[in-house]
Amino acid sequence: MKIKNHIKPAIIAFSLIAMLTVATTLAFLTDTETAENTVTVGNVQLQIVEDNYREQNVHNSILVPNQIVSKDPKVKNIGINDEIVFLSVTVPVKEVTLIDEIIRQKNRNTA
Fold this sequence. Notes:
The protein is mainly alpha-helical. The protein has two domains: 1-33; 46-110, no CATH class. The protein has three helices and two strands, in the order αβαβα. A two-stranded antiparallel sheet has the order 1-2. The longest helix is centred in the first third of the chain and has 28 residues, at 2-29. The radius of gyration is 42 Å and the shape is rod-shaped.
C-alpha cells in the first residue's frame, strides 16, 4: 500500500516536467522575432600626389646615373571609408657599361 502512495506524486511530477518541456520547446520553435541587417557598400579610393616631382622636366631630359631627382610621394584618401596604406619607394640599381665609351677608349689607345 505504501508503494501506491508514492506512485501518484511521481506520476504528477513526471507529467509536470513533460508539460514544461513541451511548452518550452514550442515557445522556442515558434519565436518570430526578426532582425534586419543593413549592408552598405563602402568607397575606398586613394590618390598619389608628388609636389616636388616635375614630370615634364624628367621626361624631356635624360636621366643619368647618380643624378638626384627629388621625390616626395604622398597618399591622399579621397574615398568615404578610412584606409590604411603602406607606401614604399624603391630605386632599381643596375651596373651598366656603355658600349660607346668602350669604343672611344679603344680609339684613343690606337691613335
